[in-house]
Design a protein that fits this description.
With about 650 residues, the chain is of the alpha/beta class. Helix content is about 30%, strand content about 20%. It has three domains: about 250 residues; about 160 residues, 3-Layer(aba) Sandwich (Rossmann fold), CATH 3.40.50; about 140 residues, Glycogen Phosphorylase B (Rossmann fold, 3-Layer(aba) Sandwich), CATH 3.40.50.2000. The protein is built from 22 helices and 31 strands. The longest helix is centred in the middle third of the chain and has 14 residues. The chain is elongated.
């Protein structure tokens, strides 16, 4: 069943402590809420508070417990829910010996395998979020913990809006859920480290073993709201307990400035001197955050039901200007998808390697559409791929990129493209993917990060290329495009390539073939301007002499001269199609052929995507003689039934 055991330590948790129970009561699975109340001595991992000048005066508590009504509230709900709410306290007048003792207190009562979920009094989740997180753990039994992002409130309607700064450091925040087994124990509370004894005597830290990453939980809409500095009373408590001198006055100044900030931002360190990084404050509505708790006109607080339906929009807004991923998952074939896909509504695919790269990714685009039937798919590609995308049935939007191959990271064109992508597509995608495995994958990966997409999938490069360590910009890597597709579907993905055509192209190809002489086999011959008297011309003469093979000459305009010479030498066995078909007609023509020899763009790229056998030619054969190619083709044809 995988029950969920929630763990809260609290002192003076009003008003937010009153939020959680009604959420838990909506959950459709077994749960238990363990609340540990009281003062924690400033020792062990809380000793930093005393070092800053923090203290615990008598008016901060009542006999070691809350003085704001929290104690009475906990007594009432424990009586209402005797089987689902447990309250742990020290005897009156006694303090807990640090927060590790507090979080350890309920473990003896947790005698079943479960999810252990730390919920601080001011951390607000929705029932839908908790249910979705539990489903992720059920679907992925190997996951040991989960990391989350949060919307960190520094006022009733002010939030922090930058990652890897105060309130949202992905290096260690926010680890909140663990797959618990009886016998696990707490090593520390800040940061929270839950350990599992191992047979060899060592201890496994569950949060570091195999957690869901921030980007993976964000893809499921699992971003909680942290009302850490939302009320004046909270700030007054922190001023005393944590030693933040003058915090209340500075918080008041922040609220006044926040009311006038509009759509801008405020540096948090200008108001909170204990903050030294570049964290910035914006209004909640500007950050696309709808607070679950709001003050009323009388100075009280009310809780607002969440909007129906989870969304990745707040997470996308939060991740929009993030840097490289702090953690990166290597996708393993056969494992369940590492993140939910039902909320993915917008996908960016980066294919900057020309028409060959686009056709090579045709199977990826098909499987992507199959896995995400409702998503809007936008493809970024170079101009020479335009004709191919005009035929592609899986793409909603095409964006043209200038060719960037071989350019340095600080090249002016690269910089301009990055700026334009960042301006036009910042926050536009839930997921981006680059199925290309070549050295120029680094450019595409960098552009994916410039969009701020929470999920960025790409093939492993594993080494720096022209100043870029391409993998650094990814959240998920795999050795092959098929491995990337495994992140999106529980089934077996099929990345086999395909060729797209149009009805007009099919008619044009059929009409052209009707001009030729029927033969047992159709061999497409790819020509370029350099082909004429070489081994390919000799091969065509040899194949024409066989009598059972029709030659279909294809190539671009520059190959017209070579095609005319070969057609003149081979007579009726040859059909010269060079320059006579558009891209769609050429695709339809090559799909009707049995094999391909030669070279030339785009014919060779189309032949590869159409999975035509390239008998006796190709990179693995070097520069073969006409006799060697003829022998290879003869052997191949002999093994085929007509």
């Amino acid at each position: 069943m995988l029950p969920v055991h929630f763990l809260t330590i609290v002192l003076n948790g009003d008003p937010f402590i009153r939020y959680h129970l009604e959420v838990f009561r909506q959950l459709p699975f077994p749960w238990h809420w363990h609340v540990v109340e009281g003062v924690a001595e400033q020792v062990r991992d809380s000793s930093w508070c005393a070092q800053r000048g923090g203290r615990v005066p008598q008016d901060l508590h009542r006999d070691g417990r809350s003085s704001d009504g929290t104690s009475q509230y906990l007594d009432r709900i424990a009586a209402e829910e005797p089987g689902r709410v447990s309250v742990y306290r020290k005897p009156p007048g006694m303090f807990w010996q640090g927060k590790v003792e507090m979080v350890t207190a309920p473990l003896a009562a947790m005698t079943e395998d479960c999810l252990l979920w730390q919920v601080d009094a001011d951390e607000l989740w929705t029932a839908e979020q908790i249910t979705r997180a539990r489903r992720m753990f059920l679907d992925s039994p190997s996951r040991t913990a989960a990391l989350y992002l949060c919307h960190f409130f520094v006022g009733p309607s002010l939030v922090l809006d930058r990652l890897d700064q105060y309130g949202n450091y992905r290096a260690y925040e926010w680890l909140r859920t663990w797959r618990y087994r009886p016998g696990d124990f707490w090593h520390s509370h800040v940061p929270p480290r839950l350990m599992r004894p191992q047979p060899d005597g060592s201890d496994l830290e569950l949060g570091a073993a195999n957690p869901f990453l921030h980007e993976e939980t964000a893809a499921g809409g699992l971003v909680f709201q942290h009302f850490a500095y939302a009320t004046r009373e909270q700030v007054a408590f922190k001023e005393i307990y944590y030693g933040y001198d003058g915090a209340v006055g500075r918080w008041d100044a922040l609220q006044a400035a926040g009311r006038a900030v509009g759509n801008g931002t405020l540096p948090l360190r200008d108001f909170f001197p204990w903050v030294t990084d570049a964290a910035t404050v914006s209004r909640a509505e500007h950050a696309m955050v709808e607070p679950l708790a709001r003050p009323d006109a009388e100075g009280g607080w009310g809780f607002v039901p969440p909007a129906r339906g989870a969304s990745t929009a707040p997470a996308v807004a939060l991740l929009r200007n993030s840097g490289p991923a702090v953690r990166r998952r290597t996708l393993v074939p056969g494992e369940p998808p590492p993140f939910p896909t039902d909320l993915i509504r917008s996908v960016g695919v980066f294919l900057p390697d020309g028409v060959g790269g686009v056709l090579g990714a045709s199977g990826v685009l098909r499987e992507l559409r199959r896995a995400l039937p409702l998503a809007r798919i936008t493809v970024f590609a170079t101009p020479d791929a335009e004709a191919a995308f005009a035929l592609c049935p899986y793409v909603n939007q095409r964006v043209t990129l200038p060719p960037l191959k071989g350019r340095a990271p600080d090249d002016a064109l690269v910089t301009a493209v990055r700026q334009e992508i960042g301006q036009q597509f910042s926050g536009a995608f839930d997921l981006t993917i680059n199925p290309h495995r070549g050295e120029d994958a680094s450019f595409a990966n960098r552009l994916m990060q410039d969009t701020g997409a929470p999920l960025r999938l790409g093939c492993r490069v594993g080494r720096p290329v022209r100043g870029y360590y391409a993998d650094a910009f990814l959240t998920h890597v795999a050795p092959t495009p098929a491995g990337l597709l495994g992140a999106l579907t529980a089934g077996e993905p099929d990345p086999a390539t395909e060729v797209w055509t149009s009805p007009a192209g099919e008619r044009a190809a059929a009409a052209l073939l009707a001009e030729g002489v029927p033969a047992r086999w159709r061999c497409a011959v790819g020509l370029s301007a350099s082909v004429g008297a070489g081994s390919l011309s000799e091969l065509c003469r040899r194949l024409a002499a066989r009598g059972d093979t029709a030659l279909i000459l294809v190539g671009d305009e520059a190959a017209r001269g070579a095609a005319a010479r070969i057609a003149g030498e081979t007579g009726s066995a040859c059909l010269n199609a060079v320059g006579r078909l558009g891209f769609d007609g050429l695709c339809a023509l090559l799909r009707r052929c049995d094999l391909f020899v030669g070279t030339g763009t785009p014919a060779e790229d189309i032949a590869v995507a159409a999975r035509l056998p390239m008998v006796g030619t190709g990179p693995e054969h070097g520069d073969p003689t006409a006799e060697a190619m003829e022998n290879a083709i003869a052997a191949w044809l002999a093994g085929r039934a007509w």
